[in-house]
């Protein structure tokens, strides 16, 4: 048996068992392919072992350390594994049954403080290699054995950069971000002081991500530190600092942007006169204005949008609904696009609400409380035809959707099912993935239409998933 085969055997069969005698990976793939009748092949799951393989250990039991082919000892696990039924559902999801639920399963499992059993690790780590979006919880869920495997397989070494629960002093970059985020929630000032104490020693990549952590609990106490970050050599650091300073109307940067905005815009009666800037100087670049525009946008339009997006919204002296009714002879689209961006950056609910009526994009919903997000989205669903924009708006609404939005979406599904049933695929999946799973009886009884029953089935699947993770 080669080193890699023995390693896979240890992970798949479990460390309380003797290694499988044979080519476990090939045998498991053949057996899985035969049993699943054409479904995706892969390593043997909890109920589908390769021929001759021992029955996997109970996922709730602790595995004893076992040496790798190179003689490294696998550390003993510190966390209890999720239960057998939860692990079996994870295997089903990874095998393609409602595979888009994998991030939700991982997040829910990580919240319990448990890990996954050894036999799921190879496939789970391989999925993490291909999909960066699911890595955030793997550092905890993979446990000691997952990190041991990652140290022996270069394809999985990304796991060593994910949070594990270590401290600021001892952890890697991801652990330190997680620690700073937790501290920021409990004591914003102490978190900032901790970051300031090590700032000069941090890498440019880490500095940019650490600055973004300060978004929670942001206040004028953070302003001097963020102002100094505008001088950082790394553009991403300057941008992150400028984005946060934009949320502080009293910051020096916001006041500089207010002066630039007033030089570009004049409001008189019902007309807004606009003159876009002629150039972008070094002072503007320091404040986060990017001089080179994206393809398709002129330089002056680009500079104008960025200035207005970072200027305090209060400088306009009128409510957004009033401003939207005024005439803007020149640069109309650019000004309103800037107001949309300003509402997003500054997280202003009134402006977000008003600009959503002009340009209903999902980013604006993030500035609103969950209840209002759902109310606006439900109203949008009632008035808007099913198209890509409706899907994007719904995609921006926080889970779990409650009865008001759930009912609006189910009603839309029933309506479209009679005219364009072929167009319902994404809406049905989104409804099943985002509606509160506790509402599966509502969906089940709402209509006998097949697509509604598909939503109900997916909600039931998720309800069972949570029940298994919280026995």
Structure description:
The structure is a single chain. Strands 1-2 form a two-stranded antiparallel ribbon. The protein has helices at 3-13, 24-36, 84-94, 102-111, 121-130, 138-141, 143-152, 173-186, 188-198, 204-213, 223-229, 235-246, 252-264, 282-286, 299-310, 320-325, 332-346, 349-358, 362-365, 370-383, 388-395, 403-417, 425-434, 440-446, 450-469; strands at residues 265-268, 271-274. With 471 residues, the chain is mainly alpha-helical. Helix content is 56%, strand content 2%. The protein has 25 helices and two strands. α20 (370-383) packs parallel to α22 (403-417) and α24 (440-446) runs antiparallel to α25 (450-469).
């Amino acid at each position: 048996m080669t080193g890699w085969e023995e390693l896979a055997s240890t992970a798949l069969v479990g460390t309380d068992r003797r290694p499988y005698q044979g080519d476990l990976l090939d045998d498991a793939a053949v057996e899985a392919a035969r049993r699943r009748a054409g479904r995706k092949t892969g390593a043997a799951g909890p109920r589908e072992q390769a021929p001759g393989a021992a029955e996997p250990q109970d996922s709730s039991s602790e595995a004893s350390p076992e040496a790798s082919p190179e003689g490294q000892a696998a550390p003993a696990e510190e966390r209890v594994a999720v239960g057998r039924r939860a692990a079996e559902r994870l295997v089903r999801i990874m095998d393609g049954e409602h595979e888009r639920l994998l991030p939700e399963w991982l997040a829910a499992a990580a919240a319990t403080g448990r890990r996954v059993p050894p036999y799921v690790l190879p496939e789970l780590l391989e999925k993490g290699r291909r999909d960066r979006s699911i890595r955030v919880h793997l550092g905890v869920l993979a446990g000691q054995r997952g990190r041991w495997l990652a140290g022996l397989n270069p394809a999985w070494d990304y796991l060593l950069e994910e949070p594990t629960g270590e401290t600021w002093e001892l952890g890697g970059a991801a652990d330190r971000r997680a620690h700073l985020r937790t501290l920021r929630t409990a004591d914003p000032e102490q978190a900032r002081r901790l970051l300031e104490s090590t700032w000069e020693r941090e890498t440019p990549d880490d500095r940019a991500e650490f600055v973004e952590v300060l978004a929670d609990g942001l206040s004028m106490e953070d302003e001097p530190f963020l102002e100094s970050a505008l001088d950082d050599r790394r553009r991403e650091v300057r941008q992150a600092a400028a984005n946060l300073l934009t949320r502080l109307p009293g910051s020096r940067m916001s006041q500089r942007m207010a002066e630039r905005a007033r030089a570009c815009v004049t409001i008189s009666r019902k007309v807004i006169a606009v003159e876009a800037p002629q150039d972008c100087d070094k002072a503007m670049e320091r404040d986060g204005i990017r001089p080179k525009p994206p393809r398709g946008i002129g330089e002056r339009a680009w500079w104008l949008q960025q200035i207005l997006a970072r200027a305090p919204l209060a400088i306009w002296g009128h409510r957004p609904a009033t401003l939207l009714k005024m005439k803007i002879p020149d640069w109309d689209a650019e000004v309103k696009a800037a107001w949309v961006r300003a509402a997003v950056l500054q997280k202003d609910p009134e402006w977000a609400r008003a600009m959503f009526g002009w340009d209903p994009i999902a980013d604006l919903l993030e500035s609103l409380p969950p209840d209002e997000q759902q109310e606006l989205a439900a109203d949008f669903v009632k008035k808007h035809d099913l198209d890509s924009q409706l899907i994007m708006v719904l995609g921006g609404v926080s889970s779990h959707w409650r009865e008001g939005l759930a009912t609006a979406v189910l009603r839309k599904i029933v309506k479209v099912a009679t005219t364009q049933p072929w167009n319902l695929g994404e809406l049905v999946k989104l409804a099943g993935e985002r509606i509160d799973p506790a509402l599966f009886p509502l969906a089940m009884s709402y209509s006998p239409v097949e697509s509604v029953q598909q939503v109900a089935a997916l909600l039931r699947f998720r309800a069972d998933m949570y029940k298994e993770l919280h026995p």
